[in-house]
Amino acid sequence: MKIRLLACLLLLGAAFGFSADNAPPVQGGAQGTGSAQAEQVAKGLRVFTCGHSFHAPFLPGWLSDIAKCAGIQDHEIAGVNMIGGSRVIQHWNDAKNKAKEALTEGKVDVLTLSPMHKADEGIDKFAQLALEHNPKIRITIQEFWIPFDKNEWPFKGKQEEVDPNAATGEGLRQLHEPYFKAMDEYVANLNKSLGKEVLFVVPMGQAVLALREKIIAHQAPGIEKQSDLFTDKLGHPQAPLMALSGYCHFAVIYRRTPVGLPMPPKLAASRFKNEDLNRLLQELAWDAVTHHPLSGVK
Fold first, then answer.
1. Which of 13, 16, 120, 163 is spaced 20 to 30 Å from 148 by Cα?
2. 7 inside domain
3. Which residue range is the domain that position 106 belongs to?
């Protein structure tokens, strides 16, 4: 309640031109997270994104729009590098990727990564380089929804056999549990080896499962079936999942609730334009972020 009240006050301040620089910090934080990590971020940040098609093509634009909806006018897209189906090490080895140059020059506040689909050594390399040139750098790792609802990559089955509408909440959670556990352990161990919290988990996968459970229970306004979330059997996102990802990343990066923000323009322009759905996506994102021990927000 206190967190949401503070967020509402910040939004009102932004609307009337007041500064949020002196806003009190959100109390508490993730396990092992000091109060400095729990403070809301008042100013816009420079965010560089590297990832696959479940992350990089859409997140920068959605996150920028959501930041503007929150009154953060100086949010900056520092760069984007997209490689389909990629592991993080592929971005590290990509000669066209400008991330290493930007990190070395101290032009990045937050680096967002999303491995496909297990964590790999590319995360370590980016973290060490980023920390060397910016001791305040934060790196977010997006956990995501498993492609094809099958725990294998690359997928070896037949796409016509995949039916997202047949999935149950219990089945989806059993499918994702080992992946979530492995990701958390990787991030926690890497932070320990770095000697400080540099990496934070964006629990997008948790939020997606919660949304799919809402759909199964017919509690997601404007969405009739689980397959409405995807453009294909692999699981590429429709507008609701893009918005959900934007809200999850906004909550982790700016450490404030998205609940109550205006509908992002891209969601308003889609066939999923629905105020109740927008509110649900915000609530699911905030719930996932505040309950994840490695998000940096509580």
1. 120
2. no
3. 41-152+162-290
**Cα 169-174-177 angle, rounded to 5 deg:** 115
pLDDT digits (tens, 9 = 90+) for 162-185: 999 999 999 999 999 999 999 999
Given phi > 0 = left and psi -120 to 50 = alpha, else beta, which region is 17? left
Q: Taking the model in full, what pTM does it have?
A: 0.87
Position 228 in a domain: yes
Tokens 């404007």 belong to residue: 222
**CATH code at position 255:** 3.40.50.1110
Q: How many helices (H) and strands (E) does the chain have?
A: 11, 5
3-state DSSP assignment of residue 24:
coil
In the sheet with 110-113, reading across from the earlier edge strand, the strands are 76-82, 46-51, 110-113, 138-142, 199-202
Residues in the chain: 298
Q: What is the pLDDT of residues 196-210, one digit of tens each?
A: 999 999 999 999 999
Answer whether residue 23 is part of any domain: no
- Inside any domain, residue 1: no
Residue 281: name the closest of 255, 266, 263 by CA. Answer: 263
Q: CB–CB of 58/237 below 8 Å?
A: yes
DSSP-assigned letters across all residues of 46-89: EEEEEE-TTTTTTHHHHHHHHHHHTT-TT-EEEEEEE-TT--HH
Task: Give the helix ranges, DSSP H, for 95-136.
Answer: 99-104, 121-133
